[in-house]
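so the lab meeting is tmrw and i was supposed to have these ready like two days ago... anyway. pasting both below. for each one the top line is the aa sequence and the line under it is the C-alpha cells. i havent really looked at them closely yet so no promises
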Amino acid sequence: MITYDFNVGNGPEMLERLQEDSLLKTEQVAAILCLSPVTIRKWQAEKGLKAVRIGTRVVRFRWGDVVDWLNTHQN
C-alpha cells in the first residue's frame, strides 16, 4: 500500500505514520530531515538519491529509499 500526502506540519506524528513505501514531496523530506528543499534536490540530481517521477514534472521520494540512502552516506 502506497501512502502519501502527509502534512509537513504534523512533525513527530507524521514520522510515526511513515512506511517504507510512503511517497513524499521534496518539501516533506526536507522538513523531516530539517534541511532545505534545495539540498534534497541537489542530493537527487548530484548524489544519487532515488526519486520516483510521476509524469514530467512531479517528483516524489519513497521513504525507504531516503533512509537507505542516508544510511549509506553517513560520515
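ok protien two:
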Amino acid sequence: MPTYAFACPSCQTAFDEKRSFAQSDDPATCPSCGDVNASKVISSIAFYSPGTAAKSLLDPGSRQKASAPAPSAHTAGCPCCTPRRAPAKPA
C-alpha cells in the first residue's frame, strides 16, 4: 500500500498515512487534534535505478577513470547542439 502525506488545516500538523489507491483522495483524521478534514499534500517522488551510475556512487571502489568522450555524430550548426535564439520582435 502506498504512503501519502497529509496536512491538517486546523493545527498545521503534517503526517503520513498508508492507504489504498481508491482511498488516496479521501480526507484523513489528524492524529494530533482529531480534525477529520486533513487533506493530501502533493509532493515529488524519488526513484532509485540500480544502473551503473548509481552503483559507482554507492561503491567508490568501482569507479573507473573517465575515458575520452565519444566523437559526436552531429555537425556544426546542428539544431540540438546550437543554442536557440529568441525570434526577433517585429518593429
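from a quick look at the 2nd one: The chain has one helix and three strands. Residues 68 and 74 are 17 Å apart (CA to CA). will dig more after coffe
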